[in-house]
Amino acid sequence: GTLLSLFWLVLALGVIRWTAGAAGATLSEYGPRYAWMGETMGDRVHTVVTTPRAIWLPLWNVVWIVLPAALFLSVLSPVWLLLLLPAAYLMGWSQFEPMHRLYYYYSYPFIPFLYWGAAAGLARLEGWLGRFRWRQAVVGGVLLLAAGVMLALPTRMEGRYRVPVKFTERQVWIREMLREAVPPEASVVAQFDLLCQMPLRRDIYPLKAENLSRAEYWVLDRQGFLGDVNGREYGGILQQGADLVREGRARVVVDRDGLVILQTERR
Description:
Elements: H1 2-21, H2 41-49, H3 52-66, H4 85-92, H5 97-100, H6 111-129, H7 135-152, H8 169-181, E1 187-190, E2 203-206, E3 217-221, H9 231-246, E4 250-256, E5 259-264
Parallel strand pairs: 1-2, 1-3
Antiparallel strand pairs: 3-5, 4-5
Helix pairs in contact: 1-4, 3-4, 6-7
């Protein structure tokens, strides 16, 4: 277990390091999330060493967000906790809040290792109980309690519980509108949680001020998640769109139930 954990830790960090140094990585929307750490590896190491928060905060997020989902059973077999470290720091060092708070799918990298460690911890608990008469009842009770905790804890996905959530009628309607209103060959700039809703397009960009001039269609959802833009930037984008419409340089394709689709002049 120790060797496997260390191997995974070294492999994961090595892949992250290689990806960060790959050509074109600086052009990714994800690169700027780590810009605060510096440009070179030396800068990044210095930042981590001189910023205690960069060390303890990711670990704290694992303690109060990840481990409770399995009733802290992984703590009974501490070596398996090493498997959680790569994702903990990858998420924790990002300036993108949903990543370091493990919102949405950013908690997924922890799931297999969390329950792998929980299984090892449960096995250790059973070993400690030895020939105790009610050993199986205790282990079964712990399993049921862990399952209950997992279902009762709110996830980071808008406070819903860990049970399947139906695809809402509004989401179905949004997907239909996107398919009908945005031509297949169009270039699109889309809000964070609409990027995956958009049917396949050749040129699609995340909603940022610098990407607006690259797209013919703007797709926004006032009820959706803003992603990398803050409220002020989002308001500025909406105002810029309104100005283009007023000047006759864009038209409103859809403006209903929070969904806004603008078609701007071809560039």
